[in-house]
Amino acid sequence: MRMTGTAAMVLVLAGASLAGAAMPASAASRQADEVVATTACPTSWNTKDKSLGNSTITPLRNITTSKHRCYDRLVVDVPNATGKIGYHVGYVKEFTQQHSGEPIKVKGSAILAIVVNAPSYDTSNGKTTYPAKGKKSLPGVNVTGYKTFRDTKFGASVEGQTQFALGLRSKLPYRITQSGDKLIVDVAHTR
């Protein structure tokens, strides 16, 4: 019995010791998390035009946006696209509709024009696959509360290319990436 009581006391003391040791580790973990949270955002992005000439007849189906710590993101969904999705992205002073050349008002201090080399309609039957309307905001996209995005506007989808614009807080660095069948446009919150 005496042995059991001593063993229990050792376990209690060992547990208290471990708990005390865990406190500094927990504090250190919090400090590490704070360092990660304050780590600088990517700075290798730029404001230059970006292009990739590939094209697909696979129609785009959706455009979505999301907020991240260092940037706002726009994603163009082109389901079943194989290979690289072509695009041309660049800053413009005025956003004009393809073919008609009509100006489209976009809110914000800077406009990022985006052309994706994929139609927003089925090329075999002409049926719409993405229900956007020219000169209107992108359907289902609400950029209220975003740090960088201020507005979205659809231009047109003509001859296998779909055109739209992002209104931005200012002319900020951006990058284009592709993940599977999604083309991604990230615009930084700062220069």
How would you describe this protein?
The chain is α+β, with helices and mostly antiparallel strands and 191 residues long. The protein folds into two domains: 1-39; 50-188, Immunoglobulin-like (Sandwich). It is built from one helix and eleven strands. It has one helix at 2-38; strands at residues 50-52, 62-67, 71-77, 87-92, 95-96, 103-104, 110-116, 149-158, 161-168, 174-179, 182-188. The strands form three sheets. The protein has a five-stranded antiparallel beta sheet with strand order 1-4-7-9-8, with no helix packed on it. Strands 2-3-11-10 form a four-stranded antiparallel beta sheet, with no helix packed on it. Strands 5-6 form a two-stranded antiparallel ribbon. A hairpin with a 2-residue loop joins strand 10 and strand 11 (182-188). It is globular, with a radius of gyration of 25 Å. It starts with a helix and ends with a strand. The relative contact order is 0.20. The model is unreliable at 1-36 (pLDDT under 50).
Could you list some keywords that capture this structure?
11 strands; globular; alpha+beta; 19% helix; Immunoglobulin-like; 4-stranded antiparallel β-sheet; 5-stranded antiparallel β-sheet; 191 residues; single chain; disordered N terminus
Radius of gyration: 25 Å
Unreliable segments of 5+ consecutive residues: 1-36
Give the number of DSSP strands. 11
Helix content: 10-25%
Apparent shape: globular
Quick structural gist:
The chain is of the alpha+beta class and 191 residues long. Helices cover 19% and strands 34% of the residues.
What does the secondary structure layout of this molecule look like, with pairings?
Blueprint: H1 2-38, E1 50-52, E2 62-67, E3 71-77, E4 87-92, E5 95-96, E6 103-104, E7 110-116, E8 149-158, E9 161-168, E10 174-179, E11 182-188
Antiparallel strand pairs: 1-4, 2-3, 3-11, 4-7, 5-6, 7-9, 8-9, 10-11
